[in-house]
């Protein structure tokens, strides 16, 4: 159910009947103030200009043509021609009765399922996954869950960085470690960061090691069995590290979704040949470059996009062109969404331009690079350890659970140690995720333990707690979420809660369109807050409440609980019955 769309299509029909073009903007919005009703139609003003008539008069004509009797209890024209609509309580109750039966809650059918490739997480396997990959992983995973819930076909792709010259030095170092009898699991890759640093130091300082590393790059690229084996060993161990983090984070990325950079190797030469043949790539100082006039600087110099290095090596960029072709032609994507930090914005603009010129993307395919800002420390600088190192994701998540445990222990009384540990895990991980997901995607944000673990304001603990409150009510009433009863919406708080419940689809649409999970976070926070006001104003289990009213309010509470649980699940956040 999408009330906004419904009003918009009704308005559109009325506009056409009044001689306006079918694509006239209906400008239906959620009302900014309760006094203005629930929704507004603001399209009369612009439409009146088109018809060269008085906007208020046009609004009146529109209202006459609009058949809203069934859904609206009040339709008012205000100001120069705003149409304010208050929905009928019985109509809202009927919509919610459908939702009570629907595993998709208030969501309608997806009229046109799309195939969407989502490229997210994508750590570089040469190094440990760090906080920089947190945002990509959880924002991407939230989008994926929303799209799937909506009914699109989603193909996850974890474009892991498993290729490039640094692997020469890493496998040369690994070889020496293994030869010295060091156990792979235990020492070599227990700390990837240290391992990388050691290898780099040898590369810079140790005679002969850099040459050996370069030799190993060449050998690796030409398929030498020994180097390949070492590389595979390294990659597999590094992937295991990432997968441990995925599991802690409760994300849906599995082994089967890994489509690493190296997977595109066989496609690279043919793509470069094609770019050359089409006259797009030209030789420049030994390298092959596509010059993009569209992205020229102020002086008019075109933006260079290198697709093959001097000496024949391919780049990150070449791989992304191959990925375009694969996703569009093999996977049949209608839309490709890629999450990386904002510093890669130019890269993806270049990739898209070149891919479109070269026909590596079918025309209808949307290519959405979704950049995100940096996670900052409370000192306002990019988030680092106290000694200035990169913060490892695995350690950060462990700390979150420890801190959550302390917070939950203060609040809870009657949980066993085991239950407490489970609650702490859900709260800790949920807090980190919600804090991130609730921020505007493209801005930098400050990472603050105290803010994210607070039970006040828009936080995971607040929402999880709201869910446990409803669970407690249901326990006291001796029912569960399967309970159903007819709804009657009497008080204003009940009506507002109903309208809010019916805004899930509108919210999800906006989230999916721009890949902005913060809108879902806001929605859930508002829903939980409205529930609290409802609960204060409308007694449920109090002595003397009529059974029909009590059951109706229980039903409304269940719909809120289910929506909270589902909504949090779309963010990859777990709930609990008690805390
Ligand atoms: N591995 C890259 C990084 O850590 C991100 C890859 C994103 N995906 C892509 N198709 N380039 O920055």
From TrEMBL:
Return the InterPro entries for the record: aa-tRNA-synth_I_CS (IPR001412), Arg-tRNA-ligase (IPR001278), Arg-tRNA-synth_N (IPR005148), Arg-tRNA-synth_N_sf (IPR036695), ArgRS_core (IPR035684), DALR_anticod-bd (IPR008909), Rossmann-like_a/b/a_fold (IPR014729), tRNAsynth_Ia_anticodon-bd (IPR009080)
UniProt EC number: 6.1.1.19
Per the database entry, which stretches of residues form a coiled coil? 487-514
Major location category of this protein: cytoplasm
Task: Extract the Pfam families matched here.
Answer: Arg_tRNA_synt_N, DALR_1, tRNA-synt_1d
**Where is the short sequence motif 'HIGH' region located?**
123-133
**Which residues are in the Arginyl tRNA synthetase N-terminal domain?**
1-87
What superkingdom does the record give? Bacteria
Q: Which reaction does it catalyse?
A: tRNA(Arg) + L-arginine + ATP = L-arginyl-tRNA(Arg) + AMP + diphosphate
Identify the SUPFAM superfamilies for this entry.
Anticodon-binding domain of a subclass of class I aminoacyl-tRNA synthetases, Arginyl-tRNA synthetase (ArgRS), N-terminal 'additional' domain, Nucleotidylyl transferase
**Domain DALR anticodon binding: where?**
463-579
Q: Which GO terms describe its molecular function?
A: arginine-tRNA ligase activity; ATP binding
Q: Which family does it belong to?
A: Belongs to the class-I aminoacyl-tRNA synthetase family.
Subunit field text? Monomer.
Q: What is this protein called?
A: Arginine--tRNA ligase
């Amino acid at each position: 159910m999408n009330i906004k769309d419904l009003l918009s299509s009704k308005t559109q029909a009325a506009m056409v009947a009044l001689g306006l073009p079918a694509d006239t903007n209906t400008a239906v919005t959620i009302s900014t103030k309760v006094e203005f009703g629930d929704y507004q139609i603001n399209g009369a003003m612009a439409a009146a200009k088109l018809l060269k008539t008085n906007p208020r008069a046009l609004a009146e004509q529109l209202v006459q043509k609009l058949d809203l009797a069934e859904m609206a209890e009040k339709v008012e024209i205000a100001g120069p021609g705003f149409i304010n609509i208050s929905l009928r309580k019985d109509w809202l109750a009927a919509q919610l009765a459908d939702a009570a039966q629907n595993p998709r809650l208030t969501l309608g059918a997806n009229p046109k399922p799309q195939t969407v490739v989502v490229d997210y997480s994508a750590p570089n396997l040469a190094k440990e996954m760090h906080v920089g990959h947190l945002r990509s992983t959880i924002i991407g995973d939230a989008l994926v869950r929303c799209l799937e819930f909506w009914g699109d076909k989603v193909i996850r792709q974890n474009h892991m960085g498993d290729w490039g010259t640094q692997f020469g030095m890493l496998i040369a170092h690994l070889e020496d470690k293994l030869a010295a009898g060091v156990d792979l699991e235990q020492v070599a890759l227990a700390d990837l960061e240290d391992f990388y640093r050691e290898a780099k130091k040898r590369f810079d300082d140790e005679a002969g090691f850099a040459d050996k590393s370069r030799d190993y790059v060449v050998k690796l690229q030409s398929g030498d069995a020994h180097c390949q084996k070492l590389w595979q060993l390294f990659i597999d161990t590094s992937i295991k590290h990432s997968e441990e983090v995925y599991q802690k984070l409760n994300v849906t990325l599995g082994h089967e979704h890994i489509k690493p950079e190296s997977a595109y190797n066989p496609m690279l030469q043919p793509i470069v040949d094609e770019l050359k043949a089409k006259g797009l790539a030209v030789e420049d100082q030994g390298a092959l470059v596509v010059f993009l006039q569209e992205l020229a600087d102020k002086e008019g110099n075109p933006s260079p996009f290198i697709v093959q290095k001097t000496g024949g090596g391919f780049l990150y960029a070449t791989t992304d062109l191959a990925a375009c072709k694969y996703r569009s032609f093999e996977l049949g994507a209608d839309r490709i969404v890629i999450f990386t930090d904002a510093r890669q914005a130019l890269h993806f603009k270049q990739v898209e331009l070149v891919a479109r010129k070269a026909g590596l993307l079918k025309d209808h395919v949307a290519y959405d690079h979704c950049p995100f800002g940096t996670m900052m420390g409370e000192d306002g600088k990019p988030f680092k350890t106290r000694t200035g190192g990169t913060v490892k994701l695995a350690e950060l998540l462990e700390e979150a659970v420890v801190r959550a445990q302390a917070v939950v222990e203060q609040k809870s009384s009657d949980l066993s140690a085991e239950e407490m540990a489970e609650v702490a895990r859900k709260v800790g991980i949920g807090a980190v995720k919600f804090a991130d997901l609730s921020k505007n995607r493209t801005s930098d944000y400050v990472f603050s333990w105290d803010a994210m673990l607070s039970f006040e304001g828009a936080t995971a603990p607040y929402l999880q707690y709201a869910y446990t409150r409803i669970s407690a009510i249901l326990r006291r009433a001796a029912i569960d979420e399967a309970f159903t009863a007819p709804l009657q919406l009497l008080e204003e708080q009940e009506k507002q809660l109903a309208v809010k419940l019916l805004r899930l689809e509108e919210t999800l649409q906006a989230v999916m369109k721009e890949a902005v999970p913060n809108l879902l976070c806001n929605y859930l926070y508002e829903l939980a807050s409205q529930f609290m006001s409802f609960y204060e104003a409308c007694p449920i289990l109090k002595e003397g409440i009529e059974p029909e009213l009590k059951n109706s309010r229980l039903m409304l509470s269940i719909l809120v609980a289910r929506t909270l649980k589902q909504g949090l699940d779309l963010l990859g956040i777990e709930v609990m019955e008690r805390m």
